Task: structure prediction
Amino acid sequence: MTSKTPQLKQEILRILAGPKYRPLDKMELGKTLGRKSGVRMGLSQTLRELERDGEIARIRKNRYVLPSQADLVTGLLHVHQAGYAFLTRENKPGEQDLFIAAENTGTAMHGDRVVARITRDERHARSRGDHARPEGRVIRILERAHNTIVGTLQHSRNFFYVVPDDPRIVHNVYVQVPPQPPL
Result:
């Protein structure tokens, strides 16, 4: 990593936080920063790092914004065995967890670091018990929590899949059919 990377990160964040900012893609950001095409590799790497850290978000057409501008939240997903989940927000410990219905978790699993879009804030959320909780939908998985999943290998007619032993991992994991050795 070069010594200019922190400076480049700060410059990108300054541009994205500007009052007249409209979402830009990588090429447009490069032009705004005055970067020549030879330096764009450093820009690409910096954008990936900022996105991975949850400081910026990539939206439609690969344009970049601050997560707060697009109602996006980054955090850890805690899945219940019934399939629904709660997202614990990063860098905002005082804010309420985000409820994510089972149909809105996508392929995310328990413990994954994800980006979710807020679909209903506290004012418009459906009341569950004595309080309303904001709701969201997982739109991107930033980091998987599990490299290995323990479970039972099942075989159907055309494919293999693993039924996880952990009840919080509600999705079966499909496995590639092993190649048959030549006879």
